[in-house]
Amino acid sequence: MPLYKSIHFDENTRVHLWKLTETEEELHQGIRLKPSSVKRVDSMKSEIHRKGYLSIRHLLKIEELSDEDLYYDHMGKPHLENDHYISITHSFEFTAIIVSSNRAVGIDIEKQRPKIVKIAHKFSTYPLVEHQRNDAEIITKLTCIWGAKESIYKIYPKPGLSFLQHIDIDDFHLVDEKTTGHIHFNNARVYFDVHFEPIENYCLVYALA
Asked: Which residues contact 152 (CB under 8 A, 6 or more apart)?
């Protein structure tokens, strides 16, 4: 399946989502990889990781970009040669990118799984039982909170930054599909717009500085 969905947030910022249904051979078609990327793909032992890597290059094509336009810094953060902002995510059968010409951005897609309730205390102080109608709602909300913090961290990847202690997500209703987040770390306070939506049994979340 080609492009699953595009979201035009505004005239400067776009999200593109891909669902992996093709074979690896099919995903190799229509794209060109630079030598370092070929070496990286060849080193990946997992087929789903190789397919995810290749699908990202197809998403870049939608933005009239190529593998040559993408590079990573020493922290593993992706950048574009044209100085636009980009963030990338991959979870099982979905990959996604967000590209903006004027704002730092971060994106995350997470599969909704019950085990997130058991680890919630490691990244959130959100009360699990208040105002929740059922366990599924708790799982969805926690998945969105994790995705929001992951997206924010991708914008602000500072050593020592803690999801639990330094990144806060303002409370929200799932139907709102948006909230705000902020970092308080080393005497700095940084604010972010956060948007989310369910995609099948996943949560797609993206943050904008």
From this structure: 106, 167, 181, 183, 192, 194, 207
* CATH number of the structural domain 3-103: 3.90.470.20
Strand partners, 92: none
CATH of domain 108-208: 3.90.470.20
Q: What is the pLDDT of residues 80-118, one digit of tens each?
A: 999 999 999 999 999 999 999 999 999 999 999 999 988
Length of the chain: 209
Domain boundaries, the chain: 3-103, 108-208
Helices (H), ranges, the chain = 24-28, 35-43, 47-62, 116-119, 135-155, 163-166
Q: Please, are residues 54 and 95 in contact by the beta-carbon 8 Å criterion? A: no
- Residues 6 or more apart whose CB falls under 8 angstroms from that of 201 comprise 111, 112
